Task: inverse folding
C-alpha cells in the first residue's frame, strides 16, 4: 500500500478523552476514528489487523471442530422473552439497542446470540445422532454500555467471535468446553500475549464452569489473583482464599456487652478492646430482593457482594438504609451483630468467622459491643459460605502458597451453560431410548476488536505501537527519503515490487515528506520492520534494516533484507 493514498492521518497530540495508551495510540496512529460515543471507524490499518486476528481464530475454531456461520444482527423480541432475558437486557441493564420496526414488531440489535443460536439448533437437532454440534461466527455486536470508554476496549459497537456447543450430556459438554479452552490458549499464544486463563464468576447464568482469558496490563479493569506455587488463578470476582489461622484461647470467657461510645469500624474496635483485628467481626445488613440478610465476615476482611448475591440467588443486593437498620437492630449503624436479631433476618457468615474463641461483634445496641462471644453458647452457628473478598497476600485456596494480584483485560470468556437455554427454549433431542432430553450447551466469546486494543495496551513504548508480525497490519514499513530524486524513486519502486513478489506485506512511504516526519510516523504506526532507502544506502546498493523493537539498524543488501524479513515475520 502506498502511504500517499492511505487513509488514517497521524496526530502528534493525544485526544483529551483518551485515558489509556491503546486508546490514545490507536487514534494518533490513524487506526481508529470516533463517530460517536463508543462507536468507531475501523480504519484500513486496523482492519488488516482485525482480519489477521480473525484468521487465527478461524483456524483454531476449525481445530476445535466448530463450523462457521453468520447469524442475523437483528433479533426478534419474542426469542428473548422465551429465554426470559428481555427484561434484564432492556429495563434492568439497559444494554440492549431495541426498537420497533415499521410493522410494529419490537426487535433488537444482538448484544449476544444464545437465543438465536438455540432457535437455529432446535430446528436442526432431532435425535442423539445429530449431536454434538458446534458453531461460531465473527460478527458485530451492539451493547449500549453505560460508560463506553478506552476506545475499542469498551465500545457500543464491536466485533466478537462467539461460538456455541451443543451436546447430549454433561460429559459431552465437558469435552466441547475443553476443546475450546485449548483453542483459546492457542489463540492467545499465537497472537503473543502475556496472559492468564482464570476461573471466572458464572453469575446469573450459573453452570458449572467458566474461564476468562486475561491479557495482563496495568490499565486493565479486572483484578486477577494467582498463585505461583501452584497454578491457581481466578478473577477477584470469584477468587477464594485461605486466611491465616491464629492460636485460640484455651477457655471460653463469659460474654459481656461493653460500652464503646462511638467506636465504629473493625480497626478502631481492635484498638479500643486491645484485641487482634481478626477477633473483631463485621456484620453488614443487606436487602436481598425481598429478604433481609445479615452477613458476617472476620474484621480483617471485607464482604464480597457478588459472592453473597450468587449464594442467595437474588437479583438485587444492596446495603440496608440507616432507617431499616435502626428498625431491625434497634441501634444506630455500626453496632449490628448476630445476637438478638429478629427471626426473619437470615444470618450468613464467611467460613473464617468460625473457629474463633472469644470473638467480638456488635451488640445491636448503640455504643455497645459484645466481647468474648462464642458460637453454640451465645448464638447459633450461622449458615456458612465463602463471602469474603480474596486479596493479594491471602493464602492460596489450593496450596500453601500466597496469592499475588495483577490487572488484566478480559479478552475472552468461555462458559458451560448447561441446559438453561435449551430448557427455556425447548431445544431437545430424542435419546437412544426415545426419551426427550434437553441439549447441554456451552458458549465461548472472544472480543476481536478488544484483542487489538489489548495488544496495543500491552505492547507499546513512548513513541508508538509495537506490533507482533502475527497481527501487524503490514510486515514492513518501506521508507524512501528524498523521494523527489528520480534515482531513489526508481530504486524504491523496484524494492516495493520485489518485496511484494516475495509475499511480504509492505506499507510504502512514498510521500514527499521530511525524514523526521516519516520516522516518527513509522514508530507510531509500529510495523515490525522498517526499511529505509536514502542517498547514503543507495550509494552502496543497500538498504537500512531496523526492527521496531530494537534501537540499532543494520545495512543490508536487498537479498539479505528479504531473507531477514522472512525470518522475522515467519514468511515461507
Ligand atoms: P465485560 O465484563 O468486559 O463487560 P462481558 O463479560 O459482558 O464483558 P461477554 O459477554 O463475555 O463480555 O463477551 C465476550 C467478549 O466480548 C469479552 O470477553 C470481550 O472481549 C468482548 N466484549 C464485551 N463487551 C465489549 C465491549 N463493550 N467492547 C468491546 N469488546 C467487548
Ligand atoms: Mg465476560
Result:
Amino acid at each position: 500500500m502506498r502511504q500517499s493514498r492511505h487513509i488514517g492521518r497521524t496526530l502528534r497530540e493525544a485526544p483529551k478523552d483518551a485515558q489509556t495508551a491503546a486508546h490514545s495510540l490507536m487514534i494518533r496512529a490513524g487506526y481508529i476514528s470516533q463517530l460517536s460515543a463508543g462507536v468507531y471507524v475501523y480504519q484500513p490499518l486496523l482492519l488488516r489487523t482485525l482480519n489477521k486476528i480473525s484468521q487465527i481464530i478461524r483456524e483454531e475454531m476449525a481445530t476445535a471442530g466448530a463450523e462457521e456461520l453468520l447469524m442475523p444482527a437483528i433479533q426478534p423480541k419474542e426469542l428473548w422473552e422465551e429465554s426470559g432475558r428481555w427484561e434484564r437486557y432492556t429495563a434492568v441493564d439497559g444494554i440492549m439497542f431495541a426498537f420497533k420496526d415499521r410493522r410494529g414488531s419490537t426487535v433488537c440489535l444482538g448484544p449476544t446470540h444464545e437465543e438465536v443460536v438455540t432457535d437455529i439448533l432446535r430446528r436442526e437437532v432431532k435425535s442423539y445422532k445429530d449431536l454434538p454440534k458446534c458453531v461460531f461466527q465473527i460478527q458485530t455486536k451492539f451493547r449500549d454500555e453505560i460508560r463506553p470508554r478506552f476506545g475499542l476496549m469498551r465500545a457500543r459497537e464491536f466485533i466478537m467471535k462467539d461460538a456455541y456447543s451443543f451436546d447430549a450430556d454433561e460429559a459431552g459438554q465437558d469435552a466441547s468446553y475443553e476443546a475450546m479452552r485449548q483453542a483459546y490458549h492457542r489463540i492467545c499464544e499465537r497472537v503473543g500475549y502475556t496472559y492468564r486463563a482464570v476461573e471466572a464468576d458464572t453469575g446469573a447464568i450459573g453452570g458449572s464452569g467458566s474461564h476468562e482469558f486475561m491479557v495482563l496490563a496495568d490499565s486493565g479493569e479486572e483484578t486477577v489473583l494467582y498463585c505461583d506455587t501452584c497454578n491457581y488463578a481466578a478473577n477477584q470476582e470469584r477468587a477464594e482464599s485461605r486466611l491465616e489461622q491464629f492460636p485460640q484461647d484455651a477457655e471460653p470467657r463469659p460474654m459481656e456487652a461493653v460500652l464503646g461510645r462511638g467506636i465504629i469500624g473493625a480497626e478502631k474496635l481492635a484498638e479500643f478492646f486491645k484485641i487482634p483485628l481478626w477477633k473483631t467481626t463485621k456484620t453488614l445488613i443487606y436487602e436481598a430482593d425481598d429478604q433481609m440478610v445479615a452477613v458476617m465476615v472476620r474484621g480483617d476482611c471485607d464482604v464480597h457482594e457478588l459472592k453473597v448475591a450468587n449464594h442467595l440467588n437474588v437479583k438485587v443486593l444492596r446495603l440496608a438504609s440507616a432507617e431499616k437498620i435502626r428498625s431491625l437492630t434497634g441501634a444506630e449503624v455500626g453496632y449490628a451483630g448476630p445476637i438478638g436479631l429478629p427471626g426473619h433476618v437470615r444470618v450468613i457468615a464467611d467460613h473464617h468467622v468460625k473457629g474463633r474463641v472469644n470473638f467480638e461483634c456488635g451488640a445491636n445496641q448503640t455504643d455497645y459491643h459484645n466481647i468474648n462471644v462464642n458460637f453454640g453458647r451465645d448464638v447459633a452457628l450461622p449458615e456458612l459460605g465463602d463471602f469474603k473478598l480474596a486479596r493479594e497476600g491471602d493464602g492460596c485456596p489450593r496450596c500453601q502458597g500466597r496469592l499475588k494480584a495483577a490487572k488484566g483485560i478480559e479478552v475472552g470468556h468461555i462458559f458451560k451453560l448447561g441446559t438453561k437455554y435449551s430448557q427455556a427454549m425447548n431445544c431437545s433431542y430424542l435419546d437412544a431410548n426415545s426419551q426427550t432430553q434437553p441439549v447441554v450447551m456451552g458458549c465461548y466469546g472472544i472480543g476481536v476488536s478488544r484483542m487489538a486494543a489489548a495488544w496495543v495496551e500491552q505492547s507499546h513504548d513512548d513513541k508508538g505501537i509495537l506490533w507482533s508480525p502475527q497481527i501487524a497490519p503490514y510486515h514492513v514499513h518501506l521508507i524512501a527519503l528524498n523521494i523527489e530524486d528520480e534515482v531513489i524513486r526508481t530504486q524504491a519502486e523496484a524494492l516495493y515490487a520485489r518485496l511484494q513478489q516475495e509475499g511480504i506485506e509492505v506499507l510504502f512511504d512514498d510521500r514527499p515528506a521530511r525524514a523526521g516526519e516519516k520516522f516518527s510516523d513509522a514508530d507510531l504506526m509500529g510495523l515490525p520492520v522498517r526499511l529505509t532507502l536514502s542517498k547514503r544506502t543507495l550509494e552502496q546498493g543497500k538498504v537500512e534494516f531496523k526492527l521496531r523493537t530494537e534501537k540499532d539498524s543494520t545495512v543490508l543488501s536487498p537479498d539479505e533484507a528479504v531473507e531477514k524479513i522472512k525470518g522475522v515475520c515467519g514468511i515461507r
